[in-house]
Amino acid sequence: MAEETFPFTSSTRRALRLQREWLEWEDRRRAAAQQCRSQRCPPSARARLTRPRRCCRDPAVHNALFSGDLRQVQALFQEEDAANMIVETVSNQLAWSAEQGFWVLTPKTKQTAPLTIAAARGYIDCARHLIRQGAELDARVGGRAALHEACARAQSDCVQLLLTFGAKANVLSEEGTTPLHLCTAPESLQCAKLLLESGATVNVAAQDSEVTPLHVAAARGLEEHVALYLEHGANVHLRTSQGETALNAACAGAEGPGSGRRHQEAARRLLAAGADARAAGRKRHTPLHNACANGCGALAELLLRHGACAGVPNAAGHTPLDCALQAVQDAPSGEPEGLLAALLDYGAQPVRPEMLKHCANFPRALEVLLNAYPCVPSCDTWVEAVLPELWQGGPPCLVLKHTPHKDARARSRITTLIMPFGGSLPPSG
């Protein structure tokens, strides 16, 4: 119409056309942005987020939530504001007082949400009621969401409930961890399965430490968790901020009685999936260093069979054999001679004579080490470490003539050496 009425030039008509196209594009952009915002955060959720949460220290509310009293929970939480309140608890904790010079009881306030309390304790009916009243599924009151606490307590029924109602499987805590990072108990295997089925990322790394769920499971010797994560594509080569792989974590976590077998099975699965037995962290500490430092002979032999180097030093200059010697006194109930023999058979060099003091009170371990020398080393640096009671009574207990080694690669045998543990302490010099 305008073109027929007014004598516009061609350049003017082109400018008007471009302006009209730009306005149409701007309208489409605004409509798309509005649609995206509405999908990301529905109107009811936006309205909830703008309202301030109210805090509650009422003992009646605390008792209802922490005891799982469904009738009381239904009576107290009948609206959305109540379901999203902040529950504050105050507890006395010991804290060091520099001014007074001793430990004192200091009150500490902790905040959480009603849904988090119910999910962490497995009160599934209470949790369902709170969700139906409008409790936010992914609220991180106190640092963690309800799904974090449910996984940390291995409450698989509550995990299923939260995921069914739309909780995010990859929700981050304030520490930067996902619920999958908190599946740290053997009983949490079902929780881990539910999370992975709901889209949890198996290779997600914590924000600061860069630890993955595979690192966590390996460090705790959770063989079934390790197998589950590997089935879902976990990467055995990912490293933490300290350069540690999951295999490093498995070997470092093998501490205490009964843990060696579990961590050995976890390490076996990692090695079968392609883990590098020689991978060292930033301090050049290898999985073999960790296994030897924990006195785990079977785990160390597993690593050696998969190519671990028995003689490589770490950043402090300690070899795996040095680490094994330093751990002898920490695990007196074990059999360190087997671990020491395995390291020597796989190429470890004899230790410095002063290191023998670490096993001076373990004749069998000392026998293995002395047989690695081409000649008997000086005893000036270690013989004084022998306990006096070992010199009192009994037959000679250290004969280095034909020490049995499992591997034919064991080196020289000393012809005969008898330490007179049945007599008096030999004169010095």
Automatic annotation (TrEMBL):
Any one biological process term the GO annotation gives: positive regulation of protein catabolic process
Physiological role: May be a substrate-recognition component of a SCF-like ECS (Elongin-Cullin-SOCS-box protein) E3 ubiquitin-protein ligase complex which mediates the ubiquitination and subsequent proteasomal degradation of target proteins.
Name of this protein: Ankyrin repeat and SOCS box protein 16 isoform X2
Functional pathway: Protein modification; protein ubiquitination
Listed Pfam families: Ank (PF00023), Ank_2 (PF12796)
ANK repeat segments: 110-142, 142-174, 175-207, 209-241, 283-315
Domain of life: Eukaryota
Keyword terms, alphabetized: ANK repeat, Repeat, Ubl conjugation pathway
SMART domains xref list: ANK (SM00248)
Keyword Lipoprotein: no
InterPro entries, A to Z: Ankyrin-SOCS_box_domain, Ankyrin_rpt, Ankyrin_rpt-contain_sf
Coiled coil: none
Protein family according to the UniProt entry: Belongs to the ankyrin SOCS box (ASB) family.
Gene Ontology CC annotation, any one: cytosol
